[in-house]
Design brief:
heterodimer; A: mainly alpha; MetI-like fold; 14 helices; about 85% helix; disordered C terminus; B: alpha/beta; Rossmann fold; CBS-domain; 2 domains; six-stranded mixed β-sheet; four-stranded antiparallel β-sheet; 18 helices; about 20% strand; elongated; Quaternary amine transport ATP-binding protein (chain B); cell membrane (chain B); Gly-betaine_transp_ATP-bd (chain B)
Chain lengths: ~290, ~400
């Protein structure tokens, strides 16, 4: 063996085999993965049901209303006009249902990355050990090409929206965790000392001091995560996630630049609306602080 | 005077090899050596002192002297490596988490150098923080916080945010927040150091005024000797994590324990800068050419002093007469003050630095007289006015 290692004739380490075995081993916990599938599926169906019920005009009014509320003290007419025209264009192109499916994928992923990412980020900020363990995992998650996640996602969660959500979550979780960690660690030491010196419990310190001060950093993590989730929609469509991504994917298959771009532009419009609204929440909160 | 806090053999070593570092200290090794060998930093070593009830106890030292570490051990923001802190007979060092929290909530609050106000809370929200986490209901805590803000002279800022306030105002909030819990002990960590000199002085005055009726036990950290002398009932000087001297302000000025303290005093020594004319006050004088003993006596009675300075019509300094001798003179029915004139009064010129006459002032019981080139009396120097000047109050008279 040893001798072989130093010749060109090296024995290959069966890395791929090991990973396959690991994934196969995981598939025996079918109940567990079904549970997750049902849970995420439930969220997806819930969102989708709401979007299917909403008439287009009401949906647009709600989006405009949220924008107006989030940006109440700055210039927002341009953005609201853009939203109105953009959403009408999507409807006009016949991509409305696709758009809501994509929105469902993004919102579900965002919800999950917030639920997992923020507590994990807090834990990381509080514990050195957790920090040391989680940081390389995040690096790995973020640098591994997103396509790769599709493969185990399919074997564990089947095809459709759920594995799409899972792949998006894995890809877009790191910034949320990182920014939460960063935000909490950046809370000035004397504020932490002040909170302690008055006899705060750990929870009081977190909720009344650390999280509010870390909020804007934390929110930009959520914003980044959401944008990354959106960037996954085309990739997720390869494993059966429906929506605008799927339209782009079909256009690639049919070599149809026109419909590809049309669906692509719809994604861009959705991205801009989501980005501006989440940023607006952040800015709005900052200015009132 | 009862002891409020007793600190016994308190030591803090930062690093993983506290045990070995401690051995090395007892072997008399230097801090640098310990750092090199064990990678441990000695913050405070074997601190022993008491703080009396209702006094302002100033801990003074340069940066790196361990004063901030020491004060943070008192409320256990830093866990002591060894030693004890006894408060009202209770050993704070043995408190478990819950007791410690209770102790921080009720007994001891802290005011920070850079104010450490919560930027996400209003001024009222900052001030009521300590009560809020104790679960006090909103109406009660807001009322109390509002009172404390009024107490420190902040009116109408309740709903503002810290960033809208000036440094001086922010520290008032810091102080109000510290007082809102009604603690017995107030820890003030370089609380006024971040303020400009004028604001700093104002805050010092206000602290003294507050203390006059609040009567808290205040442990105040400072690197500024003038500040320490001004506000401290007692001062503890630290260097390299060890206590150098503890004493009253005059004690420290007059009997510096070693060269370090001497140098420290010298570093901010006002006696070198202040001249006689700066600290002199206007004396009560009688004119030897027209006033007799009865006038002199009346003047003394009126001003409740036992001696009076004597000048001639041109205000030339002649000497001092004593009440006892003036009465003698009156009883013997004599008029001329010249007989009883004490001419051996030390005199000095207005430009003389106090430093050079300080020893003489402290030795002689009579005031120094300040005379100009032509021998005219400009003023007199009392011991009390010198002390006031040294401790920094002199600035006030300048306007």
């Amino acid at each position: 063996m040893m001798a072989n290692l130093f010749t060109l004739n090296m024995t290959q380490i069966p890395l791929a085999d090991w990973i396959n075995k690991f994934v196969n081993w995981l598939t025996q916990f079918v109940g567990f993965f079904n549970g997750i599938t049902n849970f995420i599926g439930g969220i997806v169906n819930g969102f989708q049901a709401i979007f299917d019920i909403l008439p287009i005009w009401l949906f647009i009014i709600i989006v405009l209303g949220i924008t107006y509320w989030a940006l109440h003290d700055s210039k927002h007419w341009g953005l609201m006009l853009f939203e109105l025209l953009g959403l009408l264009l999507i409807a006009n192109q016949g991509y409305w249902r696709d758009m809501t499916q994509t929105l469902t994928l993004v919102l579900t992923s965002s919800l999950i990355i917030v639920i997992i990412g923020i507590p994990l980020g807090i834990w990381m900020a509080k514990s050195n050990t957790v920090h040391l363990i989680v940081k390389p995992i995040l690096d790995f998650m973020q640098t591994m090409p997103a396509f790769v996640y599709l493969i185990p996602a399919v074997s564990l969660f089947g095809i459709g929206m759920v594995p799409g959500v899972i792949a998006s979550v894995i890809f877009s979780l790191p910034p949320v965790v990182r920014m939460t960690d960063l935000g909490i660690q950046q809370v000035p030491a004397d504020l932490v000392e002040a909170a302690d010196s008055f006899g705060s419990t750990g929870w009081q310190k977190l909720v009344k001091v650390e999280l509010p001060i870390a909020k804007s950093t934390l929110m930009s993590g959520v914003n980044q995560g959401m944008m990354l989730a959106l960037s996954m929609v085309v990739i997720a469509s390869m494993i059966g996630a429906t929506g605008l991504g799927a339209q782009v994917y079909f256009a690639v298959g049919r070599n149809n630049a026109g419909s590809g771009f049309a669906a692509g532009i719809a994604i861009v419009i959705l991205a801009i609306i989501l980005d501006r609204i989440t940023q607006a929440f952040n800015k709005n909160k900052k200015s009132s602080d | 005077m009862t002891k409020k806090v007793e600190v016994k053999h308190l030591t803090k070593i930062f690093g993983h090899h506290a045990g070995r570092a401690k051995e090395m200290i007892s072997d008399g090794k230097s801090k640098d050596e310990i750092l090199a060998k064990t990678n441990s930093v000695v913050g405070v070593h074997d601190a022993n002192f008491d703080v009396n009830e209702n006094e302002i106890f100033v801990i003074m030292g340069l940066s790196g002297s361990g004063k901030s570490t020491l004060i943070r051990m008192l409320n256990r923001l830093y866990e002591p490596t060894s030693g004890e802190i006894i408060l009202d007979g209770q050993n704070v060092t043995n408190f478990d988490k819950k007791q410690l929290r209770e102790f921080r909530r009720k007994k001891m609050s802290m005011v920070f150098q850079n104010f450490a106000l919560f930027p996400n809370r209003t001024i009222l929200g900052n001030t009521s923080y300590g009560l809020e986490i104790q679960g006090v209901d909103k109406a009660t805590r807001d009322k109390k916080a509002h009172e404390c803000l009024e107490l420190v002279g902040l009116h109408g800022y309740d709903d503002r945010y810290p960033s809208e306030l000036s440094g001086g105002q922010q520290q008032r909030v810091g102080l109000a927040r510290g007082l809102a819990n009604d603690p017995e002990i107030l820890l003030m960590d370089e609380a006024f150091s971040a303020l400009d000199p004028l604001n700093r002085k104002e805050m010092q005055d206000e602290l003294l005024e507050l203390q006059a009726h609040l009567k808290k036990t205040i442990i105040f950290i400072s690197h500024d000797l003038n500040e320490a002398l001004r506000i401290g009932d007692r001062i503890m000087i630290m260097r390299d994590g060890e206590i150098v001297q503890i004493g009253g302000p005059e004690d420290i000025l007059q009997h510096p324990k070693n060269e370090y303290v001497e140098k420290f005093i010298e570093g901010v020594d006002r006696t070198k800068i202040l001249t006689a004319s700066r600290v002199m006050i206007r004396p009560n004088v009688v004119n030897i050419e027209k006033d007799g003993p009865r006038t002199a006596l009346r003047l003394m009675q009126h001003n409740e002093v036992s001696s009076v300075f004597v000048v001639d019509s041109q205000h030339h300094f002649k000497g001092l007469v004593d009440a006892k001798e003036v009465i003698n003179l009156i009883e013997n029915d004599k008029r001329d003050l010249t007989e009883i004139l004490n001419t051996s009064i030390p005199t000095t010129s207005p430009d003389t630095p106090i430093k050079s006459i300080l020893t003489d002032i402290s030795k002689t019981s009579v005031p120094f007289s300040v005379v100009d080139n032509e021998g005219r009396l400009l003023g007199i120097i009392l011991r009390s006015s010198v002390l006031e000047a040294i401790s920094g109050s002199e600035v006030e008279n300048d306007g």
